[in-house]
């Protein structure tokens, strides 16, 4: 029986060692595209809700400071020199 090779990636090796130490069986099944899509939709929805909720809880002065900071960051970007 040939000796199994160890993974080249350090993270994969660590995962393999943990799996072996806990006697976990490797799962052959990965996440399906439907599962990935469902999770991504939920994450996107959460971002939209939390942004709206954040605006509702902020005072006018706090919103103004956020807008000023965002505008400063946009204008701080350097434009390429034109000839």
Question: What gross morphology would you assign?
Answer: elongated
Calculate the mean pLDDT score and round it: 78
Count every helix, treating DSSP H or I runs of 4 or more residues as helices.
3
The Rg value, from CA coordinates, equals 24 Å
- Distance N to C terminus: 68 Å
State the share of residues found in helices, binned by percent.
Answer: 55-70%
SSE pattern: HHH
Strand proportion:
under 5%
Q: Quick one: how many beta strands?
A: 0
Task: Please render the helix and strand layout as text.
Blueprint lengths: L9 H12 L11 H25 L2 H17 L7
Describe the structure in your own words.
- The chain contains three helices and no strands.
- By secondary structure, the chain is mainly alpha-helical.
- It has a domain at 49-76.
- The longest helix is centred in the middle third of the chain and has 25 residues, at 33-57.
Core attributes:
about 80 residues, mainly alpha, 3 helices, about 0% strand, elongated
Offer a quick outline of the entry.
By secondary structure, this protein is mainly alpha-helical. 65% of the residues lie in helices and 0% in strands. It is built from three helices and no strands.
